[in-house]
Amino acid sequence: MKRMIAAFVLMGLAIAVAIYIAMAPVASPTADGALNGFLAGLDGLVDGIEAAVGRSTGALIAIGIGLALSLVLALVPTRTRYAEEGEPFFSPSDELDLDHYPQAPGAQDLIEDEHDEVEPAQAPAPAPRPEPAPEITREVQPAPVPAEPVPAEPLPAQPTPAPFTATPLTLVRKVREPGRDWFGDSSWFGGLPRLGDTPWPRDLSGIALPFLAQIDLADIAACSPEGSLPGTGSLAVFLGDGGLVPLAADVTADFTDPPQDLPPAFEEGAAMPFPQHTSRLTRWLFPYWPIEVHAGNAIGTALERDHPFYAVGVGEPVETLWWHSVQHFADRLREGLEQADAPIAAHRANLLQAREELKRIENDPDTDPYELEDAREDIEGLEADLARIEEQRGSLPDMLAALESFTEGRAPWGVLSEQELEIVRDLLPEAHERYGELIGQSIPGSLGEMATVSLRAAISGPPEAVAAIPEAMLARLNAEYRLPAEGTHRLFVPAEDSDEIVLVDLAWDDMIEWCWPEEARFQIRIAPEDAAQGKWERARALFVPS
Known about the structure:
By secondary structure, the protein is an alpha+beta fold. The chain contains 13 helices and twelve strands. It has helices at 2-23, 34-52, 55-75, 107-115, 217-223, 323-338, 341-362, 369-407, 418-439, 447-459, 463-467, 471-480, 528-532; strands spanning 169-173, 188-189, 211-216, 234-238, 244-247, 266-267, 282-283, 289-295, 489-494, 501-506, 521-526, 540-544. A ten-stranded antiparallel β-sheet has the order 5-4-3-2-8-1-9-10-11-12.
C-alpha cells in the first residue's frame, strides 16, 4: 500500500513540474524575497529546457519520467522470504488471523503471555533495598520430535481388461418354409429392428442410419461360449459410423417404427442402394430374412454360389409370372415417362450445338465442301431423332394408361393365366420397339428380369407371396441362394489390412438388395482395446474391396 501512495505522489510531482514548465516564467521581475528568488531560478531552468528541446517537449518529458518511475515503484515486487528448514513460514511482521485457524488448548494464553509488556517499577526514596526475590525459572519442555513420515499407501493398480475374444462366425439366411411364423425369429437381416427404448442411431450430420441386421447374443453364445460377449441381449447393425448398437432389451419386443426422415434403402429392380430420388419403386427397408449363426465355416460348401440369382436359365422360357411383375413393369414405365424430359432436353442441346457448328462452317471461306455436307446431314439426323422421341413422349401416356388398366384390381401375388401371360409377352417387346430410345433403360429388358424381381420380393415377403412360389422354384431358392453370390456374411474376423477386429462383415447379396458399390463388402471394425472395454461407439464403418 505504501508503494502505491508513493507512486501516486511521484506522478503528481511530475505533473506539477510539467505544468510549471508550461506556465513559466512564474517569478516576478520586481519582487524580492527568497521564494521569488527560488522561482526565478526555476524560470531559468525552464528557459534552458526551452532552448534545448522546446517547452512542450520538456513538459512531456517530465510527465514521461514521472510515469516511468511511478510504474517501477508500483510494480517491482517485494522480496518474498521462503521458509528455510527450522524457520517459520511467516515473518514477524506478517499478520495472521488466528481466529481462522484451529489452536491447541492454552495456545492463545501462551501467545498473549509472550507479548505482554512489563513496565519498570519506580522505587520510592528513601527506601530499604528489598530482598532479592527468588529467581523464577520456567521449565522449557523439549520440542516434540516429529515422527517419521508414513509412506502413503500406493493406489491399487487398475485391472487390465481381459482381451476381447470371440469365435469367427458365419451368418446364413434361413430356409423359407410356407406357413411358418416368419417374424418370430430372434436374429434377422433387413426389415425393422427391435430397439426398445434405445433411439435409432444417426450419423454426425443427424441423418438416420439404414438398418441392416439384428443378432441375438444367445445365438452367438451358443456358437462361441468362450467369447467375451454376454449371453443375453442383441447386437443391432446399421450402415454407418456408430452403427453397432448393443441392446439389453428383449428381442421379442415389438419392432421399432422407423424415423420419418429415414433415407431410402434401395430401388426395386435397380440393383443400386440408396437412391437419390424417390418413386413408386423406392423401398425404405431392406428385405426381411431370419438368419442362422454358425461357428467358423461349419456350413461347408454346399450353399456356396458364384453367380447372381436369376429366375430362369439362359434360353429357358418364363412359365410363371405374377401380377407383381406386371405392376413392377407399369411402375418402371411411369418412372421412364416422368424422366422423359431429360433425354429430350439433351437431344435439343445437341441439335443447337450442331446448328452453331454449321454456321461456323458456312462462314468459313476455306471450308471443305464435304465437311459442309456432313454437317448438314448431321443436323438432319438430329432433327429426325428429336422429332421421333418427342412423338414417343406424346404417345407414351396412352400405353401407360392401358397397362395400368390391365393391372387394376389385381392381387400382387396372383399368378397370370396363360392368356394374360401371352399379352405381357407381346407387350414388353412392343414397349422397347416403340419407346426404346426414350425409356429403354428404365423398363425391364425381358420377362425373366420381371420374374426375378418378383421372386426376390416373394421369398422375403408375406406368407401369401411364399405360397405363390412354385414348389420346385422354392426348393431351388432354399438350396442354392441362402448365401451371397460370393463369400459369406461373417462376424468377429481379423482385418486383412490392420490389427482391428472386424465385428461385422456383410457381403454383396442380391437376394436382400445389399448391392454395395462396386460389389464391395461392408464392415464395422474396432480396435482390440476398445472391444475389450466395450467401447462400441468407437467402431467405424467402411466398404472394402471384395
